[in-house]
Amino acid sequence: MSRTPCTDAARGRRRRSVVAGALATTVLSSLALIGSPTPAHADDGQQANVDEKLYQNEQDVLTAMEKWAPVKPSESVMGYPKGLDRDKDGNVKAITLADVQPKYDPAEAVKNAELAAAQYAADTKNPAPLRASAEHLSTGWPGSKAANGPDIRPNTKNDVVGGQPAEQYCNMVNKDPDHAAFGQTAPCIFVGKVDEKWPVRGSTDGVAGGGTLSYKVSGSVTDEKSTTEGWSAGGKISPKITGTPAGDKGGAGGEIGGEVSFTYSYSSTSLKRVMNTLETSVQIEVPNDKKGYLEGRANGAYYTGYIVVRDIDSNNQESLVAIPARAYVQAPDTTSPQTWFKRLTPA
């Protein structure tokens, strides 16, 4: 049975002083409005990210996303990634080793995980307790017995580490203020290779041309990283689109449905956050021979890889676990989780 793995003094200590890390809402920096000057700042959020250009083909949208929200071919997320796909009951959707291994060899992933953790530990901008946790992930605990080799799990749900699910394990934080390792957390990291960039996150119905489409876009982000506890896990954005009458093609009013809410992880190198998006008016002038609609694109990508965890038991024996996973990660150079595009297609 594993003991608490996340502190320097965990070895030889029988009393647990860690509980699941709390995820709290945090307020973030400015959000640039794509295609327009940076909007004025507000105390409770920033304007929704809307590209003012009319886009008539998919490749133009992808080119714009490459410019404004570039994603990396590989990515890492410290801790348990929040951007795992879940079913309607909140359970993680499993991905198998057979799905992941052809794209990303687990031995390579473990090496990359150790390198990414070492980079995180070396960055003095990161909190000191988390840097220590990342160092344990990279090199282990001083004086411990090194792991014989990685324990490669067959799927995402085969994830018990130290007698508990990986999500619970990875969210442990030492909350004892008198302990030398106060603030340290379990050594966990997700590493993955990109397999789907800028997924569509909902759109309005297409309306044939000859008029103006008018919408209001707003939303909020919750479950952001706590400023004092645990890894930078991520958040959930819940945008809202409202149709408003305008011209002979204006909306009928009321909220527009669609699957626009999604959860995401931050990359380990990202220090940018956003809280709320203020209501922004959007108009689409639709020609007679076109159909117009508003499309939401996520500012990031899905990555296929592994959650890599380092554990230690009461005999100072380390173990290294690699769990197949697929996670959505927000692009590191954007504060906005989502961009809205004004689209035109043939009627």
UniProtKB/TrEMBL annotation:
The keyword Signal applies. It comes from the Bacteria. It comes from Streptomyces auratus AGR0001. InterPro entries: TAT_signal. This is Secreted protein. PROSITE patterns: TAT (PS51318). Residues 1-42 form the signal peptide. Transmembrane segments: none annotated. Keywords: Signal. Residues 135-158, 224-254 are annotated as: Disordered. The lineage of its organism: Bacteria, Bacillati, Actinomycetota, Actinomycetes, Kitasatosporales. The keyword Flavoprotein does not apply.
